[in-house]
Amino acid sequence: MTDAERLTSGFVQALRESPFRIAPERSHELLATMGGEPWILEIINGPANFEAFPKRKEIEGTHAALLSLWAVTASVNILWRLARTAIASGQSQIAIEPGGPGSEIIELKNAALALIRSEAFSWSGAPAEPNTLAEPSSPDGLINNIFLAAASVVILHECGHIALGHQVHTTLMHQQEREADAWAVKWILEQAPGEPQREFRTLAICIAFIWIGLIDEVRQTTATHPPASQRFADAFDAFGDIANESTALEISHYALKAFFDPTTDLPQANSAKDGFIDG
Ligand SMILES: [Zn+2]
Predict the structure, then answer these.
(1) Which terminus of the chain has fewer CB atoms gathered within 10 Å of its CB, N or C?
(2) Domain residue spans in the chain?
(3) Model pLDDT for residues 35-89, shown as the tens digit of each residue
C-alpha cells in the first residue's frame, strides 16, 4: 500500500459528501442536476489526477491526488495566516525561504510536487500528514475541513464537465477546462449566504487552483509559467460582478502568486480592504 492510500483512505466517505456540503444551500439542486442519484465517485491508486467520464456519469480520483491536495491545503493555510498577519502589522513583504518562518510552506509544496511526480513517493520526510480522525475543532480538524472544501471544488469542476456534456477527446480541451472552472466557481459562490461563507469558499477555490497549477507544472514541462493564476482569474471573470468586492479574492490572487514565486511583495497596504484586517 502506498503512503498516499494509507493516509487518505479515511477521507473517501466525507469526500463523496463534500460537493453537497460546500454550498449546502444548493444540495437539493445538485442532486436534481445529477438526476436524483449522486454521480459515482471512485478513489483509486494511480498518478495524481481527477477525471470525469461524462457518458458514464462517473468521476475518478486518486489517493495521490488527495494527499497532494491535502499538502497544498496545509501549505496555503500557513501562507494565508502569514499574509494576513503581515498585512495587519503593516509589513509590505514576507520572505518565504528555506529555514525562514514560512519554510513549512515550501516543504509541503515540495512534498506535493514529489507525489505528483510519483504516486509511490514516501511521505515519511514530509513535515506533516493528515489525521483523518481529528476532532473538527482541532487544528488538524480545521485543515481537514478546508481540504474537503478544496476537494469539493475539484469534484465540482469534474461535475461541470458532466453537466455540460463535455467530450473526452476534443480539440476544445482548453475551452472545456475554462467552462468547467467557471461552472464550479459559479455553483459554489453564486448563492453564498454571506461574507464569511464567501471568504471560506474562496480560500477553498484558491487551494484547488494552486493544486491544478502544480499538476500543470509537473505534466506540462514546456510551460515556463503555471497558468493556475490565470485560470483562477478567468473563472472569477466569467462569474462576473459578485466577486469584485471580495477581499478573500484579493488575498487569493496574492497567495497564487506567492506560491509560484517564492519571494514576493505583498500588495500595497491600501489595497487590502479594512474588513479583512481584523485578525
Ligand atoms: Zn477538467
Answers:
(1) C
(2) 3-274
(3) 999 999 999 999 999 999 999 999 999 999 999 999 999 998 888 888 778 777 8
Burial state string for 114-127 with b = 16 or more CB within 10 A and e = fewer than 16: bbbeebebebeebe
pLDDT digits (tens, 9 = 90+) for 8-29: 999 999 999 999 999 999 999 9
Cell of 161: 464537465
Rounded to the nearest 5 percent, the helix, strand and coil shares of the chain are 60, 5, 30
Q: Which helix (H) or strand (E) holds 253?
A: helix 247-259
Strand 58-62 vs strand 50-53: parallel, antiparallel, or unpaired?
antiparallel
Measure 81 CA to ligand 1 centroid, in angstroms.
Answer: 29
Q: Name the residue type at position 47.
A: P
Q: Measured in angstroms, how far is the CA atom of residue 211 from the centroid of ligand 1? A: 13
Instruction: Please give the grid coordinates belonging to residue 227.
Output: 497558468
Short-list 65, 77, 44, 46, CA closest to 153: 65
Residues with CB under 5 A from ligand 1 (ion): 177, 180
3 state DSSP class of 15: helix
Query: What's this model's pTM, rounded to 2 decimal places?
Result: 0.88
Q: Which three cell numbers stand for residue 153?
A: 471544488
CA of 162 to the centre of ligand 1 (A): 10
Could you give the CA distance from residue 230 to residue 226 in angstroms, rounded to a whole number?
A: 8
